[in-house]
Amino acid sequence: MKTFFKLFLLLALTVYLIFAFTHIASGKDESVCKAISVNVSDSSHAGFITANEVERLITTAQLNPVGKKMDDINSEAIEKALLKNPFIKFAKCYKTGGGELSVHVTQRLPILRVMANNGDNYYIDSNGQVMNPQGYSADLIVATGNINRHFAGKKLLPIAKKINDNSFADDLITQIDVTPKGEIDLVPRIGCDIIHLGKTDTIQIGQQLAHLQTFYTKVLPTVGWDTYREINLEYSNQIVCKKHTSGKKRS
Questions:
Q1: Are residues 168 and 191 part of one domain?
Q2: Strand partners, 39
Q3: How many whole angstroms separate alpha carbon 102 and alpha carbon 92?
Q4: Residue 4 within a domain
Q5: Rounded to whole angstroms, how far apart are CA atoms 230 and 178?
Q6: Together in a domain, 138 and 235
Q7: Residue 101 placed within a domain
Q8: What's the rounded Cα separation, in Å, for the pair 167 and 84?
Q9: I want to staple 197 with a disulfide (CB 3.0 to 4.6 A). Which of 72, 184, 225, 248 is the partner?
Q10: What is the pLDDT of residues 97-131, one digit of tens each?
Q11: Are the C-beta atoms of 66 and 36 separated by less than 8 Å?
Q12: What is the pLDDT of residues 168-227, one digit of tens each?
């Protein structure tokens, strides 16, 4: 009797192990997805991709997993759908315990918006990648005027980076304008109307921004913020200013 009972237990254990192994090996997960957990890298910087935007993109692609069996969720399809957005550089999607789908996204951070005279309207990221607006908007420096895409990536992007890396200039400058001669003008929030840089390069721009900060912090508070309509930083050893004529100060 004892021998029979032992054989029965051994048989039951064998059947259970076979069932458990088969179930695990099959990868079947009949549980239901309850939520999406989204993590966006660089979310504290100026960007367009938020957790809510990621969920919206997934829903728009008709791939929202909430309410579906975990085994029926296609993680690869969700990744591909997200990567169709030009503002997303990397996307990884995987299932976790507790009925949750985890989505990790790295976004492309726009540095500059270009609105050229030729009708071009796009963003550029830190690597020079051109991205169509697609309805997004952000408080970035806008480049206007005579700009082609080569000029934007080769000339304007390094200037925009220099401005963004300089906290004073980043707060002050709202626009870069390119003249028909290919010279660079900056439009500030306060003070003069135009800051003329000329045909500057990445070495000069650092020096010019340093001179600009000195002028704004030491000169303008003394002579008056609306005294000058133009500040010319084209020359390395001097700052040339043009005063407002009576009644023509910027409002």
A1: yes
A2: 104
A3: 8
A4: no
A5: 16
A6: yes
A7: yes
A8: 33
A9: 184
A10: 788 999 999 988 889 999 999 999 999 998 888 98
A11: yes
A12: 999 999 999 999 999 999 999 998 999 999 988 777 899 999 999 999 999 999 999 889
